[in-house]
Write a structure and sequence with these properties.
two-stranded antiparallel sheet, 6 helices, Arc Repressor Mutant, subunit A, 2 strands, mainly alpha
């Protein structure tokens, strides 16, 4: 393994570690009075962006199981972030929508990202389209490589 590979493995390992640590730390997005884990706020985001999506569709979008969706949505409903509903012509499927509190968390999440990523965005906005494509292509290839470990 050359020096580049060693540095790359260390940096990506550090990114995974930080991501894992962030997942463990709940944050009160939008000053709702309810600290949310990343999985919670990403569920809120998915529900808001994919209105009229049922449990199966949400699981597909989030690349998770229906059981995980049920667990998180149950917790979010208890916290007053989401409401369940059914369509009159389909009593079987359960759908979700954000409450005012959930929408407050959703908006707070975006405000948080906007404030945290300004310098990061400025950096990437200085990159050429070719440099951006190279980065995206690299990340796709690296992800494909990691997926092979799942087999």
């Amino acid at each position: 393994m050359d020096n580049f590979s060693i540095i790359l493995d260390e940096m990506i390992g550090r990114m995974f570690f930080i991501s894992s640590e962030l997942e463990k730390r709940p944050k009160d997005y939008g000053n709702c009075g309810t600290p949310l884990h990343m999985s919670d706020i990403h569920m809120i985001e998915t529900i808001q962006k994919n209105q009229n999506a049922n449990t199966t569709e949400i699981a597909r979008i989030m690349n998770t199981t229906k059981s995980t969706v049920s667990k998180i949505t149950k917790r979010l409903e208890k916290e007053g972030m989401i409401k369940k509903y059914k369509f009159l012509d389909n009593k079987k499927e359960i759908y979700f929508k954000l409450t005012d509190l959930g929408l407050q968390a959703f908006n707070g999440h975006y405000e948080y990202h906007t404030s945290r990523t300004q310098s990061f965005d400025k950096e990437f906005n200085s990159y050429t389209e070719e440099e951006k494509k190279l980065i995206v292509n690299f990340l796709k290839k690296y992800t494909e490589e990691l997926e092979q470990y799942l087999e």
